[in-house]
Amino acid sequence: MPKRVDPDVRREQVADAVIDEIAEHGLRAVTLARIAARTGLAIGSIRYYFGDTVREVMRFTLGVLMQRAVGRAATMSDDPITRIADVITFAAPTSEQERKENIAMVEYRVMARTDTELAADVAATSLAGAEVIRSLMRDALADRAIDEEALHREALLLFALVEGFSFSSALFSAPLRETDIRAVVTATVLRLRDAFPPSEHEADR
User: Fold this and answer.
1) Is the sign of the CA dihedral 57, 49, 117, 71 positive or negative?
2) Are 12 and 61 contacting, i.e. CB atoms less than 8 angstroms apart?
3) Which of 34, 35, 104, 171 reaches 20 to 30 Å from 11, CA-CA?
4) CA pair distance 204, 198, nearest whole angstrom
């Protein structure tokens, strides 16, 4: 009797093959034939799980990439500055698998610029990431005299740092170093704090 295969496991296997293919040859090079060659599955089997077009495979893989990015868990510090460093360091591609996933995500983001079907999902992910950074920055600058507009600009600056890690890693042949990322983020946040005076409440202590 043939062994029963979990459909979710099979789909995840296909998604990993797509990620590897994008990392090596680029997103537009992905075809059902290439996926079949990487997984050892027949094209008919891939169609059984995803339908007749490679488009559904690509959309599923984008969902997997976003879930993995959100699902990474880190031990969070009680200190707000360290917490920002924790989050950004854990989100950055510091392993070979994360580097490949980051390359794939960067390619999806570039494609979404002219692909309205992908644009909404990609934009939602970016907006969510920016809001996380803004919330973390609010905590880190809670004892500083800073208005909402300035907070928005500083959070945007820090999010640009996150984007820089992502795009630069996609061009490197090796993952980023965790110690480098943590040091850069910590130094950046400390400089931002020093740019604003203590709040009146803090100054009166």
Assistant:
1) negative
2) no
3) 171
4) 10
Locate 59 and state its tokens: 């959309």
State yes or no: pLDDT of 138 exceeds 90. Answer: yes
> DSSP 3-state assignment of 144?
strand
Mean pLDDT of the residues in the chain: 89
> 101 to each of 78, 90, 125, 169, how far by Cα in Å?
29, 14, 15, 11
Q: Are 189 and 136 in contact (CB under 8 A)?
A: no
CB 129 within 8 A of CB 162: yes
The answer to whether 145 touches 197, Cβ cutoff 8 Å, is yes
Q: How far apart are CA 171 and CA 167, in angstroms?
A: 7
Mapped onto helix, strand or coil, the DSSP state of residue 198 is strand
Helical segments of 40-79, H only: 43-50, 54-71
Question: What does the pLDDT look like over 60-112, one tens digit per residue?
Answer: 999 999 888 877 655 678 899 999 998 898 888 999 999 999 999 999 999 99
The amino acid at residue 38 is R
What whole-number percentage of the chain has pLDDT above 70?
A: 93
Rounded to whole angstroms, the Cα distance separating 58 from 30 reads: 9
Can you give the pTM of this predicted structure? Answer: 0.85
